[in-house]
Design goal:
The chain is 68% helix and 0% strand. By secondary structure, it is mostly helical. Helix 1 runs antiparallel to helix 2.
């Protein structure tokens, strides 16, 4: 049996985009100095991966504001 995942609508995609950015900020919020330097690059990579996935869900269309 084939199943299909529902494609999120624009509102859902915008909420997921906001959540991705919030997660990124939360991961770095209380860090400074070397702890920030160590954590920022991996956090940025996770954010970029999430944003790429959301872009694919949009069908390659740029996000509207």
């Amino acid at each position: 049996m084939t199943t299909f995942a529902a494609v999120p609508d624009t509102h859902d995609l915008e909420a997921l985009t906001c959540a991705a950015w919030t997660t990124y900020a939360d991961e770095l919020r209380d860090l400074d100095g070397q702890a920030y330097a160590d954590a920022e690059s991996p956090a940025w990579e996770r954010l970029q991966a999430a944003l790429r996935e959301l872009e694919e869900m949009r069908g390659g269309q740029p996000a509207t504001r």
